Structures are given as structure tokens and as C-alpha cells.
């Protein structure tokens, strides 16, 4: 069975593993994200040297990834990856085919290949954490968009505050960090001293926590509703840290009940699922992206 070497490049660490053509992960490990691109290449080279029989190398990367050209545009926590032709550099260094894709897109591809959306062709994937990210899948392939910003749902405007003359995006209003900041402001505390998980865990017994957790779920439901009617996917998959919460789907559906109760002309109810894959999602999706491009 063919095997591929997948790397998941993040702001603090680079995870890597072997992944076969069935999406099975083995020999997983990681190294600290280096300070320079040259150091990154050297660390990757050590890993590749120990995996001489892989078909190719698949990368999951932050930023606006041009999979065809091999350059990463936009910005991320790793400044040095933006600009160089990483695909070309690595192919010249390793003498093996290399493919790279955006990390959120990889997480979505993992679900389309072997996860909850494996029977779907057109779906949306939402990543909810410190901000809102995502991916648009069309015919089981990533829709990148004209400016490589397909799936950047966090930029969607969700609210305008007349008293401030200010627009608020989905990331502003609907991230878990936004919940923590609002709780801290109402309680007169430094939000760095609050634990977002604790706020969600105790929302049922703390009125301030409940107020902003409910607002979070309402904003999430609004975004999901908007995506359903903008793209009309057969499934919307939720990933990110929030996806591990048992009550997630119930809470979102409660808010959707309210929306559909008011907007009675709307008849297409979003089909929402929680992602199957956790820490291995980007590795699996990067591998699937490689397989799609190489047949």
C-alpha cells in the first residue's frame, strides 16, 4: 500500500506522520516550529531522510496557499513562510513530489475523504476557535476562490453597532475568545485570567457566563444559516476546539429553531455535523489533497 509523508505546520509545532492511501496514520511525531525557513527545511529533511519509500510529501500550512504555484500569500503566525516558493524549494531538496494546502482546507478534506462528509460532494467546514475559519468544498475539491480566500468565513460581517459606528465580523463576535473577553469586561476582570473552557462548562450555573455563551451559539447559528442560503451545501461540518463539546449540536439547533420560527419563508434546514477527526485531521487532509493532484 502506498504511503505518504505528511507535515502539519503550526505556529508552535510541526507535526508529521506517515499516512497511507486509506487515510491511516502511523509513526506520528513533531518538532518545535523553527525560527527560520532554512531551519524548517533542515528539520523536514531529517524526517524525509528516515522515510525513503514514501510516494511524496504533503503539507498542511497556514495562510492563503496557492497550491498550484507553491507560494503562500496572506499572513500567519509564521512570517517566513510567506513569499518563498516552498513547493519548489522542497521538491528540489527532497527529489520527491510535494503538495501543499491551507490547514483549514486540509481539515475539511479529511472529513470529505474519510470522515462525516465522506458521502457528500458539496459541503462547508467551519473552524471555530480563537477566530473563525473554514473551507468550501465543491465536488469533493477545495474551492479556493479568486483571491485564495474561499472559506474565510471569519471576515463575514455579522453586526453593525450604530453607537460605535463599527462593523463586527464573525471572528469578532463568534469566536471563543470573544466570549471570554465579554465575560471579563462585564465582570471587570482581565480576560487573560479567565479560562474559556470553564466559562462554557459553568454556563448553566453562572448568569454572566450563560449570557455570552448563548450569544456565541446564536452567532454560530446565524453564520450557519447564512452559509446554507449562500452556498446551499448538503452538509455543514463544525471543527475546532468547540467541536468536542457534547452539547454543541443541541445548542446550535435550539438557536436555529428560533431563526426558522421567525423566518417562516425559509425551508432548507442546514444539515450540521461535528467533525470526526481531531489532531490528525490536517495530516489526513493534506494526504488526500496530494492524492487528488496525483491520481
TrEMBL record:
Fetch the Pfam families from UniProt. ROK
Which InterPro entries does this one have?
A: ATPase_NBD (IPR043129), ROK (IPR000600)
Q: Which domain of life is it from?
A: Bacteria
Q: Which family does it belong to?
A: Belongs to the ROK (NagC/XylR) family.
Family annotation (PANTHER family):
ROK (REPRESSOR, ORF, KINASE) FAMILY, SUGAR KINASE
Q: What is this protein called?
A: ROK family protein
Q: Which organism is it from?
A: Faecalibacillus faecis
